[in-house]
Amino acid sequence: MTTNNSIYILAIESSCDDTGVAILHNDKVLSNVVANQEIHSQYGGVVPELASRAHQQHIVPVIDQALKLAKIDKKQLNAIAFTMGPGLMGSLLVGSSFAKSMALALGIPLLGVNHMQAHILAHFIKDDDQQKPLFPFLCLTISGGHTQIVKVIDFFSMKVIGETLDDAVGEAFDKSAKLLGLDYPGGPLVDKYAQLGDPNAFDFPEPKTKNPLDFSFSGLKTSILYFIQKQVKKNPSFIAENLNDICASIQSTITSILIKKLVAAAKQTGISHIAIAGGVSANSEIRKVLMEAEEKYDWKTYIPKFEYTTDNAAMIGIVAYYKFLDQQFEDLSVSAQARMKF
Question: Mean pLDDT for the chain?
């Protein structure tokens, strides 16, 4: 690895509906700007074509703001990083095209980053309030599009040992919220109302899978749908009268599924260093239960700061930093990939 100890990287994240740009000096974040897209809430989900158009509108002002907040000039940059995949193809193309153009114009290296690897390595951002995991560790990566248990050997060696067979956990939260008439994105609202409810008020099944480390949420979603339909038929005001308890019961069931799989993975691998990552790792119940599991199972747990859980460019930048040290650069023929593995 190179020993250059003053590396400035501009990182771009555009995998879905948030336009993120960060400036890192080595492993320290100097700025981390995210432009959200409010337009999707009226459609109850992300509309790919609208997302890519919004990225085109946001990317220049977000880059400008990130450079100003970091108090550096673009001529000081040593590399440009971008999310290569996985994600929405139109959104990825905006970020990748701009990154390639900027790297070419400045005559500096280009670094492509796997979005899911970035969620995991966000734990390695230099921050006084955040501990870095020790290798090897297990990472429960949970978001709107992914649910995985990853065995992390080092920065560039990762293996998925469990994953969802259908819906991702974030999707399960959002679809459950939609059934309850809540706005999009519904996951944070389920969490909000759940904190006021009884998690044992209603029972929902925990689906079984052939591989004990795999997940399945489609059956749970269907059971919640039938439950709501049955109760509303008997009492049209059922949701309004029981919203907190319904949310608490749904959240408790999903959390139970996640933690049980994680316990099984820890036993199977003999690894006791456990991390979580991804947007759903911001969920208060999942964080609480994971901290309880730390004491119960003698784990060492790592929970990222909230700002590094949802899609952001700082996590892209930290992967790019380690790739820069290892001289893992891309040439300009590199292309975005809607589907991408470690």
Answer: 92
* pLDDT value of position 43: 44
| 25, β-bridge pairs | 8, 28
Q: Are 221 and 255 in contact (CB under 8 A)?
A: no
Q: Give first-to-last CA distance, the chain, whole Å.
A: 21
* Neighbour count for residue 271 (Cβ, 10 Å): 16
* Whole-angstrom distance, CA of residue 6 vs CA of residue 22: 16
Produce one character per residue of 180-201: b if its CB has 16 or more CB atoms within 10 Å, e if not.
bebebbbbbbbbebbeebebee
C-alpha to C-alpha distance for 221 and 119, rounded to whole angstroms? 26
Task: Determine the Cα–Cα distance for residues 186 and 174; give it in Å rounded to an integer.
Answer: 5
Helices (H), the chain: 48-70, 89-106, 115-121, 169-179, 187-194, 218-234, 238-269, 284-296, 313-325
Cβ atoms of 88 and 55 within 8 Å: the answer is no
**Would you say 142 and 280 are in contact if contact means Cβ atoms under 8 Å apart?**
yes
Query: pTM of the full predicted structure?
Result: 0.92
Half-sphere exposure of 38 (CA within 13 A, CB side): 0
Would you say residue 49 has pLDDT above 80? no
Ordered domains of the chain (ranges, CATH): 8-124+309-325 (3.30.420.40), 137-303 (3.30.420.40)
